[in-house]
Give the backbone structure.
Amino acid sequence: MKKLQDKLIEVGNKLATQRHLQSISFGLMAIMPLTIFGSIFQLISALPDIFQFIPSYSETIKDAILFPYNMVFGLFGVIAVCAIAYYHARTYKLDLLQAPIVSLLSFIVLAAPIVDNNMDATYLGSQGIFLAIFVALVTVEIMQLLKRRNIQIKLPDSVPPAVAASFDAMCLIVAGFYGLSLLCQNFTGMLLPSWIMSLLTPAIQGSESLWFCMLMAFIIAFLQFLGVHGFNVVSGIILPLLIANTGANAA
């Protein structure tokens, strides 16, 4: 029994400190206060529906109340990609400003195509959370690979090093993601975030079940019993599912 306990503790600690899961966990937990902030205004807007004695708001007032909520949930993916890229870049000791900027540009290229001269913002919110995770992690991994292999586009010496470094990352990474987006649209007929969501639909629907909630609660409690912070171990896995469901519930 002691050997089994030690093995489970070892596995739990490895998962809790795994670089990618940790970056996802830290990034999403960092933006959870924004979720609470936006939800407060959603609840205020719903007060006349909950308590009949409160007069109904006019459309103008209701829109004003819901503005913070719409901003937070409508830009959830944008905020998430920056936060996750920041924490992942920190694990590699990369530029903590450059990584979120390049990740954000790549995310917008993939998630917000121009349709009839208007930007489609459907996947900038919670529906784009899985794309945000993918873009942030891949962007930082490519950046650290470029740095480690000293791969760069040669620019004149008059160009400042910081500008040259950003140019390398933006040209190679953003252009690469744009090419990936075109390939996905060509072969699947869908945007990359749409395709990712179609693949993950069973997992998202499964996370809504009572059995999944009971399993996660058991795993967290069991790991706590063994002396491992259970939520830290599974947060990188369950937080994206919870956020996707939160966005659906809010809508």
Remarks:
- The mean pLDDT is 80.
- The longest strand covers residues 114-115.
